[in-house]
Amino acid sequence: MFNVQFPGLGFSFxxxxxxxxxxxxxxxxxxxxxxxxxxxxxxxxMASCKRFKMDQDKLIDAVIVGLIGGVIGARLYYVLFDASDxxxxxxxxxxxxxxxxxxxxxxxxxxxxCGALVAKLHKLSIPAVLDMASLGFLIGQSIGRWGNFVNQxxxxxxxxxxxxxxxxxxxxxxxxxxxxxxFYESLWCLxxxxxxHIFSRKxxxxxxxxxxxxxxxxGLGRFxxxxxxxxxxxxxxxxxxxxxxxxxxxxxxxxxLLVVFxxxxxxxxxxxxxxxELNSIVDEVRLxxxxxxxxxxxxxxxxxxxxxxxxxxxxLSGIPIRTPDPEEKQEESPAAEPEGExxxxxxxxKGGAVPPKDESSKEK
Length: 364
Known about the structure:
By secondary structure, the chain is mostly helical.
């Protein structure tokens, strides 16, 4: 149990890291939150398939393999750069993933590499898959970081800011409060997701552009946030934080490639309307929405009682309308013929002669 306080904001919480137990086995909130983050990211990616012109079944294979690769990569990243001798003394403990110890950059690298490999085997556009995966990762990271809050880990140095956090674990660093780095990263990823989601729908010029923007955006935020943390993994032989080094490299690579590909216009899904037209791409989702809006406008104000919206408007305004009675139409007789003339007799025009009658009909 943790007693967590935000004294500057007047908030106080009591947190139990264990969510529930089944058969004596404890299920912790950290795992539940990570699972929920993955599920929401997966739902978003699947819902985006139509816009990105992506085959859902093939993409699911890439997601599953990418998930496995992400977990392996995250654990391997942590084990390789762990400063303690725990894994040297007991190498088998490297497989005890349930005891904690994951590196998000390892997860990103492993997930992207494995997912891209399956995408290539299924002949999917790898840059387009990376674009979709980037947005999913931002969702997962934004939600997943709250698992660190529940475990009271991944916090920063001492601070007197109004949103400082205090708990039993943070007391080791400062009794007055520390930076809630988990919240910083969660918020940074949420803002990044919103911006890149809008960009992918309206401004994307080529497959892979969103991915490049993602690694640049996340790297920029992570470089700053990692500098505040007190539990960073340190590079061997160099007194540098490994995550800061990776973040800096990510930003540089992102900027360079964005400049190199600035004139690229190869697009297979949603993005800039002009580029979609250039690639002969039809936005089926947008067309469907426009058709629904058009239909709604046509049906607006129409009643099932009256023939059209104009009659409905008149009745609602108190203006009487009269609908013709079908029986009255039946009673109306055709124009009366002139008296004294048998039906079928020709009526001579003024000044004209009467045509002779056909007597042949009487012979019968």
